[in-house]
Queue: 3 jobs
Job 1
Amino acid sequence: MRKTLRAFGLARLMHPCRGIVTWASQRGFMSYSIAKHVPWSWVLEPFTIYGRGWKCRWFPTESDALGHRLFFTGLRVWEKETSPVMLEEMRRARCAVDVGANCGIYTVLGCTVNPEVRVVAIEPVPKACAALENNVRQNGYDSRVTVLNIALGDFDGMVSFHEAEDSTVSSLAVHRKGRRGKIIEIRCRTLDSVVEELKIEPDFLKIDVEGFEHLVLGGASQVLTKFRPCIILEVIHGEPAAAITGALSRYGYRFQNITDRGLETRSEIVPVKDCPNWRCSPNPH
C-alpha cells in the first residue's frame, strides 16, 4: 500500500513533465526504454502527435492498441515506411475512404495534413468506432469526416464478426484461433453501395481488414472502374495475395511494395516479411 501511494505521489509530481517527455521521445531525443519508468496513466491521457510542419491531438482509450506507441515514438517507429507514403497520398486526395479505420489515426492525420480532404472512415468494431468518432470530434474534423460503424465486403447484409480484445486484429475470421474476443453480428456493405449512397468520388482508399481485402475489392467494381482510386492495403503471410492481385489486375492496377528503401515495383502482390503494405495505382489509360 505504501509503495503504491509513493508511486502515485511520484507520478503526480512528474506530471508537468509529461508533454516534454512525449515531445522528446517522438523526436528521438529520448530512448523508448524510458517507457518503463513513465506512469501508465500518462499514455491514457490526450497527447500531441508531432510531424514535420504539423501536429494533431490523440485521445487514447483503454482499448487503444496504438496509443502507447504513438505517445513515445509518434510516426518515427510505428509504420515508419508506410506513414510517409500514406500522408503523401492523403495530401493529394480530394476524397479518401479509410477502410478499417480503427481509432482513426490515418483519418485524423489525413485531415491534419490536407485541410480540403473529405474522409469516409469505416470501422466495424463498436469500441474502436467510438474512439474514432471521439478523435475526429476532438480535432474539429466532424464536418469533413463521415464515420460508418459497418464492415465492408462483397455483399450487403448481416455478417458474423470476431471482435478481438486487441481491436487491431478484429476481422471476419470468426474461426481464427489464438485471439481472444467475442463474436458479434454487424452490418456489411459493399464499397459500391456506400459510395453511391453518399454520392462521393473517392480518389484514395486505405484498406486494412486483416486478410479480407479481396472481399472489399470484390464489392468495389464500380469504384475501381469509374474512379480508379490509388490504394494502400496490407497483405501479411497467409492472406489471399493472389486474389488481391487478380482483382486489381482486372482493372489495370500496378503494384509497389512499401519498404524502408522506398517503393519497389512488383509484378504481383506477395506477402513480404516486415513490409506488409502495398501501394496500388491504376495504369494510365
Job 2
Amino acid sequence: MLRLGNLELDLPAIQAPISGYSDWAMRQLAREFGAPLTFSGLMLAKSAVHARLWRQGGFRLGEQERPLGGQLLGRDPEEMARAAEVLAAKGYDLIDLNFACPAPKVLARGRGGALLREPELAVAIFRRVRARVSLPLTIKLRTAFAEAGDGGEGFWRIAAAAAAEGVDGLIVHGRAVAQRYRGHADWGPIAEVKRRFPRTVVLGSGDLLSAEAAVQRLGESGVDGVVIARGAIGNPWIFRELRALLAGEPAPPPPTLTEVGQVMDRHFTQVLELYERRRAIGYFRKFCVGYCRRHPRRRKALLALMAAETAEHVRLTIADWFLRADGAPVERLESARESTAEEYAP
C-alpha cells in the first residue's frame, strides 16, 4: 500500500509524468497492466490556464482513468497556485511540483531543477499552492544541482521545509541536475531522505528499468514507493511484474511476441485517435524502442518500424515482426509504403 494524502494506492509504484510520452494512450495501458496512479505530461504553469493546453492528447482526461496526477513547472508562486486550481477544477487527483527538470531550456528560464539554487523561492511556491488547493501535493526533486561541490544544500533545505509543513510526498531522483541522465542514479541520498524524515512519504526514482530493479531498490532504500519513468516506455508489463514480485509470487512469464504485437497495435490505434496521422506515426516511433527490447531480432525489427511511413505500413510491420510466428518480413510491405499516401493529408 502507498498513501499520498487522501489517495490509497494498492501498489507502491506509480507511472511518472514523462514529457512527450505520458498521454492518454500510454496512461491507459499502464492502468490496464496494474499502475494504480499515472500522470499526464509535464505542464507549464502559465499554459495550464489556457484552453488550448486541454485540447492536447497529453493532458486530456480519459474516462475511468482516475486517480490522475498532474505535474507543474514554473517559478512564480501565484502563477503556480492558479495553475494548481485549474488542475483541481479539471478533475485531477494529485499535483506534483517539479523542482527537478534538467532540460537546458527549462533551466535557462529559472524553472525546474534551477530552483534547487533558489530554495526559498521553491518553498514559497509550495506554500502558496498548498494554501490554495486541498489535493494531495508532492514535490519532485533531484539530489543536488551540480555533480559535485554543492553538497545538495538547496535540496536539503527544500526537503526539510516541505517535510515540516506536511507535503504529501517527496519524489526524489538520484542524480544531480547537471548530470541530466548520464551515469547511474545514486540511491544513497534517496535512502537518507527517508531516514531524516521518517514520517514523510518518500518515493525514489532513477534507473528503474525492470521490475526486479524496482523491488531491489525498494528493499535497499527503505522508501515508501518508486516512480517508474523510462522503464514503462513501451513496457506496460513492468507494473504486472511488480505486482507479482511484491506479492511474493514468481515473476510472470514475459509477454510473447504475439502479446507485444497486440498491445503495440492497440497503442498505435489510440495514438491515431489523439493526433493527426503524420504526427502520430513519428510520435509512436518513440515507443517502438521499448517494445522492441523483447524481440530476438531487436535491431532489425526496430529499423523496420522506423522505416514505416504510413499508418497501414506501421500496422503491417507490427504484424510481420510480432504477430507472425517466425517474425519474417514479407513483400507486401513495399506496396504498403505507397498505398495510403492520402494519410499525409492534414
Job 3
Amino acid sequence: MNAIAIRGGDEFGGGASAGGRVFTAGLDVSHKTILYLEDISVSFDGFKALNNLSLDIDNGELRCIIGPNGAGKTTMMDVITGKTRPDAGTAFFGQSIDLTQLSEAEIAHAGIGRKFQKPTVFEQHSVFENLELAMKTDKRVRASLTARLDSAQRDRIAETLALIQLGAQADRPAGLLSHGQKQWLEIGMLLMQEPRLLLLDEPVAGMTDEETERTGELCETLAGKHSVIVVEHDMDFVAGIARKVTVLHEGSVLAEGSMDQVQNDQRVIEVYLGR
C-alpha cells in the first residue's frame, strides 16, 4: 500500500489512496476520526496478541479500554506508538499519517503521547523544570545550551501547572511529590509536547481515592481539546469518566458501548467482569 506519511512535518512516500482514503500532508481529521486501526494482527512466538483488531477513535473523544490481562491492551498501544510493528492490518493517525511507516520518535512528533503506568519524571529537577525540559523545542545541544524561555513559553508552563493542579509545587523537586502528583506531572510533560492523542496506561493505579477523583476530572478536562484513550482496570474509575467503553478479549474487540451496555453484556460478564 502506498501512502503519504509525515516525517518531521515533511511528506514522504507516494500514492494517492488506499482503502478509499485520500492521503494528504498534515493531520486530517475531516472525517472526525483521529485514529483508525483496521484488522491489526500481532503474533509473538505463535501467540496472537492482536487478532484482526479494528478500532476507531473520534477527534476529541475520551475512550476507555478495558479487558482481562492478555487481552491485547498493551500491544495495541505499542502498535499505535510504533514500538511494535503489526504483522497485518493498517493503523492511521487521521486520514493521512500511516503509523506503520513511522518510528516511535516520528509518531511522538506527529502528535501521539503515551504515559506508562509507572511515572517517569526527572526527580532531581523541579516540577517547573520538568515541564520546561519536556517542551516541544529544538533539543540539539547548541540550541539547548543557549535557550531562554520567552513569555509565551512561561505562560504555557503556567497554564499546564494550573491544569494538572501543581502550581503550588512548581519549585519543588519532582522526587518529593506523591505518587499521584508524579502521575499528573508526567501527563503535564506529555501536554508540553502538544499531542493530539494521549494514551494513558492505568493512570490511577496506586492512587488514593482523592487522587483518583482528581485524575478523573483531569481526563475529562483534557477531552475535547485532545483525544484521550484510557486503559484501566479500576472499574469504578472507568464508570466515573466513561463516555464510550471498548472491551478487548483475546486480541479483538469483544464489546463496545456505554458502561451500562458493556456491564450488562453477557459475554463481557463471562470473560472479564464476572471474575
